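Marked as duplicate of an earlier ticket. Keeping the data here for the record.
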Amino acid sequence: MDLTCDDGTLRMSLMEHLEDLRARIIKALYGFGAIFVLCLIYSEKLFDIAMAPGRAALARTGIPGAEFVALTVMEKFQIIWVQVPVVASLFLGAPWILWQLWAFISPGLYKHEKKWAVPFVLSSAGLFILGGLFGYFIALGNGMSFLLGIGKEDHVVPLISIADYFDVFVDLLLGIGVAFEVPVLMFFLTLIRVVSPGFLFRHSRYAIMAIVIVAAVVTPTPDAFNLMLFAVPMCMLFFLGIFLSYLLVRKREGRWPFKRRVS
């Protein structure tokens, strides 16, 4: 039985794939663990950074007595010493984790497709971190200001549990971070010929509907303001993914629009 691919590389058996998957998961966990220990050392500073948008939002309401509170004995310990370092480690360790993912996928690709390793890791990690920054600096602060300001005229004083706040913080940052991976996913699916730019464009209406549904699930509240704050950038990223897929297909088919034909 011929175990070589068209480009001369060896095919891997099912057991070899499983063994490689196990090795990649272990390496990813080792890297994540090392970053987690580093984040644990600075957990209190990271907690202050995580709470900054919420504190600013409370201050903008102008309501006297509005503050964050801890309702249980273990609440501060769980958030400061466990959840905050885990979330920080996910963002800081994204390049290493995604590199292990690519290393697992790459044996199934052709030789000319493996050259996308570095762009894949850099773009994936960059978009994930960019999504987290968008959630931190834009979506979280604006959404919190809008929600905490409700009831101000009725003299409702916000006393927000830090556990509730951090749940919103994690859901929003991780949700937007993962959602920002859409262009990379679309490009990769085009690379392995699962989809085409034409297919993506023809079904864009369904994609927009799916984005709105995901936005309704990911955003912490059902109001239209927070939903649109998430859905509009996601629609823009979707059409960016279509454009990148179009450029890939044009180049792969030898009709690269910015390259002069040689007669």
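See parent ticket for discussion. The two ends are 43 Å apart (CA to CA).
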